[in-house]
Amino acid sequence: MNHYMDRWYTVAGLMIAMLIVAYYTSSSTLELVATTTGLLCVWLTARENIWCWPIGLINTTCFFFMFFESKLYADMTLQIVFFLLNVQGWMIWLTKKAGSKVRPTRRMTPWMWMAAPVFIVVLTIGWGYVLTGFTDASIPYADAFIATLSIVAQILLSNKILENWTFWIIVDVLSVGMYAYKELYAVAFLYLIFLGIAVGGLYSWKKEYLEVGKRQGGIFHAR
Fold first, then answer.
1. pTM for the whole structure
2. Is 106 helix (H, G, I), strand (E, B) or coil?
3. What is the pLDDT of residues 169-204, one digit of tens each?
């Protein structure tokens, strides 16, 4: 019980820190709601808690409108994809649980490793081109690249695949710089926290994956 309470004290402390940053950076109410729900969502995801998905739906809705106001159209469109992937992830995590609270963690297949770079390059170039030619996007190709990486990470997360955290770590590092450049300081600070949670998520998910593999007599791959 004490360990459980310590975890909630940790996230409560992080949310208070977010409120302080939001106050001193004059963040809007929408930005504040988006950042706090995002923090709670990622924290629950790292702990494989199924409540991460409904909170994620609220979070993506808030970010959609916030990015529209900031003219980050790739990130705005990304929230629609995230909304759908949140619904998918919610359903997938509740299947093939084998007695566990959520679906066991899996790994990327060789085919996924080959397809991911192609998908990232093609979508980034195409998306960046569209944003440059048809919108007043602020930093089109950087926005498109981060958004594309986020799609890959979210697809892996929805399918309970360990490597999602590796992609999220890259996204978080790049996002801190982009949002600071756009003067969305509360969001930039949020992604700095996300980075720490992602590192912890990678560690805890990998540990759980190896323990399950030992119990089953070998390591299994995504399928």
1. 0.81
2. strand
3. 999 999 999 888 888 787 788 788 889 999 999 999
